[in-house]
Design brief:
The chain is α+β, with helices and mostly antiparallel strands and 88 residues long. The chain has a domain of 53 residues.
Amino acid sequence: MHIEPDANRGDVDFQPAAGPAFFRMPDVIRITALSRTTVYRRIADGKFPPPVHLGGRACGWPRAAIQRWIDDPDGYSNLPVTHTRRMN
């Protein structure tokens, strides 16, 4: 069966993604070279992206979140930014 592209779809990219949308813990350990304990310690410290729940007992890390950490592991912060007000 051959599917013809629909002319009304414009510039839709039908190429598959370059990898999975979410990484599971074994992938995160392999990609980052961190241990499971270190991953969870850094999550608690706000120095690593937290996982998202995928359903049931499954959780994973979005590809973009892992990439942000890879781009700047020392500067990564997942803690909320608090703004202080100057008092005159």
